[in-house]
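// run 5 | inverse folding | seed 20
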């Protein structure tokens, strides 16, 4: 689900007043309003519609009334061509996948109050006649933000839960196009709240307190994010689904940047900075807990998910390129009886351990309009009571404009795909060879 739906979500942008976008549309459609000549501006070009400034902030379209009231609008798209080998020498089957198609809206209405709304297209890969189920655009993130200073801030609404870097990267800010390999936290394979669901598309409803500080007694920056969320919740006295008492989920993440700090919106992360942030060494620990939030009504247990991850990025001297390493270890505890797999109301989350390692090298020389970044990755998933699964991946990214324009070609071999998210006893699946040609663009 993640890619994830991921989201991650979150886009590196600031914003502008949404009503200004409507005004601009009407003005351009009717031809009543004439834009002034383009003026110089710190973020690029800027024009005017009455009191509304229209310009850009980075690569996002920006509308503003003043320095404290603005809206930015952006979009992101990711797609893949996929060639999968067939059993019994059947050759390779080709397919095209719309991985993500998102709209981003960020804004500020007061010095301390902001908002973020991101949408996602679901069922976009449905190829049946009449698109049944219908293609659906739905709210991915809907966040109200009180941002006071770098030390103390509060977000509320539907958002990513602060646990692992891969999830907080989202699909657009990871090191590879296919970033989500290790088992998901409960919200990441849920499309609803209630029986069989603990979130929507990798997000959860709740509040997150976050900030950063320099300890002073040692070099580096400490970043923290902690919150309370809905998690899995079943209807009371229904005898269907675990957690019928309304126990909430608590989660948190702490990151220590030993060298240069990372500059991301809020508590979001990136898998690489392409050397533009200097040398990075970030170690982090995340945890999530919810009582009675795994298994079925008859065979339930609490859920504890822990993760440790590492980002190391080194800008090599004498313009020799950039080396990047990502590592992640997860340990999930969900001790429900394996008989729960036979129950229709089972929320059968992963129970076990996993780890993943990725190494990348950004070649400094530009070839045509971009730079090549070869990489390799290995992932191991080891569930309790089910079969192990592994995957190796090797490929190359062609980086045109950081995360805003990137093309990737890569090969995968393993049984992560064939065994999937089913961690019941006796799962089998053959080793599969997959080749993908993928791209992503953002504005």
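// decoded
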């Amino acid at each position: 689900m993640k890619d994830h739906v991921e989201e991650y979500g979150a886009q590196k942008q600031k914003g502008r007043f949404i009503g200004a976008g409507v005004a601009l549309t009407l003005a351009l459609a009717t031809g009543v309003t004439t834009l002034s000549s383009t003026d110089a501006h710190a973020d690029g070009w800027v024009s005017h519609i009455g009191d509304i400034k229209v310009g850009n902030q980075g690569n996002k379209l920006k509308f503003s009334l003043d320095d404290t009231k603005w809206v930015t609008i952006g979009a992101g798209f990711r797609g893949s061509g996929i060639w999968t080998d067939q059993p019994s020498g059947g050759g390779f089957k080709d397919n095209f996948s719309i991985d993500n198609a998102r709209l981003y809206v960020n804004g500020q209405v007061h010095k301390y109050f902001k908002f973020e709304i991101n949408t996602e297209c679901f069922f976009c890969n449905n190829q049946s006649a009449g698109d049944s189920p219908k293609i659906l655009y739905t709210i991915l993130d809907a966040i109200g933000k009180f941002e006071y200073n770098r030390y103390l801030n509060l977000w509320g609404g539907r958002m990513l839960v602060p646990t692992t870097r891969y999830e907080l990267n989202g699909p657009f800010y990871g090191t590879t196009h296919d970033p989500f390999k290790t088992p998901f936290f409960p919200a990441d394979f849920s499309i609803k709240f209630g029986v069989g669901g603990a979130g929507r598309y990798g997000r959860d409803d709740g509040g997150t307190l976050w900030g950063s500080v320099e300890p002073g007694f040692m070099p580096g920056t400490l970043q923290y994010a902690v919150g309370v969320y809905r998690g899995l919740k079943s209807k009371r006295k229904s005898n269907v689904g675990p957690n019928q008492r309304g126990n909430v989920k608590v989660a948190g993440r702490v990151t220590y940047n030993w060298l240069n700090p990372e500059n991301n919106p809020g508590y979001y992360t990136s898998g690489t900075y392409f050397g533009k942030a200097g040398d990075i060494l970030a170690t982090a620990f995340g945890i999530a807990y919810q009582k009675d939030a795994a298994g079925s009504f008859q065979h339930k247990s609490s859920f504890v998910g822990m993760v440790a991850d590492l980002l190391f990025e080194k800008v090599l001297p004498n313009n020799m390129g950039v080396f990047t390493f990502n590592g992640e270890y997860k340990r999930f505890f969900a001790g429900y009886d394996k008989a729960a797999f036979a129950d229709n109301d089972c929320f059968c989350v992963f129970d076990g351990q996993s780890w993943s390692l990725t190494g990348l090298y950004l070649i400094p020389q530009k070839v045509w309009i971009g730079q090549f970044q070869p990489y390799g990755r290995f992932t191991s998933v080891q569930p309790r009571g089910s079969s192990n699964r592994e995957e190796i991946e090797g490929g190359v990214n062609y980086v045109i404009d950081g995360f805003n324009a990137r093309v990737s070609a890569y090969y995968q071999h393993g049984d992560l795909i064939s065994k999937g998210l089913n961690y019941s006893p006796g799962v089998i699946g053959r080793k599969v060879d997959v080749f993908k040609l993928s791209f992503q663009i953002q504005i």
